[in-house]
Amino acid sequence: TYFPTNSALTFDENGKVVPSSDAVAEVDGVPYKTLQAAIDAAEDGDTVVITNDVTLAANERITLDKCLTIEGITDSVTVTGSCNTDNNSGLFTFGAGSEGSTLRNFTINYTSTGFDTSAVYFTYGFDGESSEVTRISNVTFVGEDDVSSIGQQSGILATYLTNDSAVEITGCSFTNFKYAIYVNGMNNVTISNNIINGTRLG
C-alpha cells in the first residue's frame, strides 16, 4: 500500500487504511500530520481543510507559494503561533504564487514581540493581476489576552509593497493587536464587515 509523502495514514487492527490520530489537515481526503505538509502536498487550486487544532513552534510560519483555499472544518478550529525574533514575517506568509488564495472559516491565535510581524503577512513577491483576488473571510484573529499586554503583533500586515494585487478582507474579527489591519502600498484592497476590538494603534 502506498501512502503519500508526509501523510497521516495508518492501518487499524483490521488492516484497514485510516487517518492516524495526530492528523491536523487534509487535501482531497488525504490526512497530514502538519499543516505545512498538507500545503506542500496540495497543488494550485486545491483546498486544504484544517481538521484539528494546530500549535506551531515559536517563529514557525506557514508559507504559501501557490494558489490554495485553506479553510477550517469549523470556524472554531484554531491555528496558534508566536514570534519572538523574526521581523517582516507572519504566521501565514503570502509570497509569489499565492495570489488568488483564500483563508476562511477558522481561528488564528497569534502573539509576537518581533517588529512588523503578523498573523497574516504579505511579503515581497506577492504581486498578481487585479483579477486574482486573494480573500480572507470569516477568520477570527486573537492576539493577547488583554490590551495592556499587546506586543508587536498585528492581525494582517503588508509593508513595502507596490502593486495592484486584489485583496478582500471580509467578515473577520480582530481582538487585542497592535494593528488589526495595516496595509502599505497595495492599491486594490477591500475591507468590509469586520469587527475590531482592543487594538493598541488602529
Name its key features.
202 residues, mainly beta, 5-stranded parallel sheet, globular
Describe the structure.
The protein has 202 residues and is mostly beta strands. 3% of the residues lie in helices and 46% in strands. The strands form three sheets. Strands 3, 4, 5, 6, 8, 9, 11, 13, 15, 16, 18 and 19 form a twelve-stranded mixed beta sheet that branches. Strands 7-10-12-14-17 form a five-stranded parallel beta sheet. The protein has a two-stranded antiparallel ribbon with strand order 1-2.
Helices and strands in order, then pairings?
Layout: E1 9-11, E2 17-19, E3 25-27, E4 30-32, H1 35-41, E5 47-50, E6 54-55, E7 62-64, E8 69-72, E9 78-83, E10 89-94, E11 102-112, E12 117-122, E13 134-142, E14 153-158, E15 163-170, E16 173-175, E17 181-183, E18 186-192, E19 195-197
Parallel strand pairs: 5-8, 6-9, 7-10, 8-11, 9-11, 10-12, 11-13, 12-14, 13-15, 13-16, 14-17, 15-18, 16-19
Antiparallel strand pairs: 1-2, 3-4, 3-5
* Rg estimate, integer Å: 17 Å
Report the order of strands and helices: EEEEHEEEEEEEEEEEEEEE
Class based on secondary structure composition and strand pairing: mainly beta
Shape, per Cα inertia axes: globular
Helix content: under 10%
Specify the biggest β-sheet: 12 strands, mixed
Mean pLDDT rating: 86
Strand tally = 19
Question: What fraction strand?
Answer: over 45%
Q: How many helices does DSSP assign?
A: 1
- The poorly predicted ranges are 11-18
Subunit organisation of the chains: single chain
Termini, distance in Å?
Answer: 54 Å
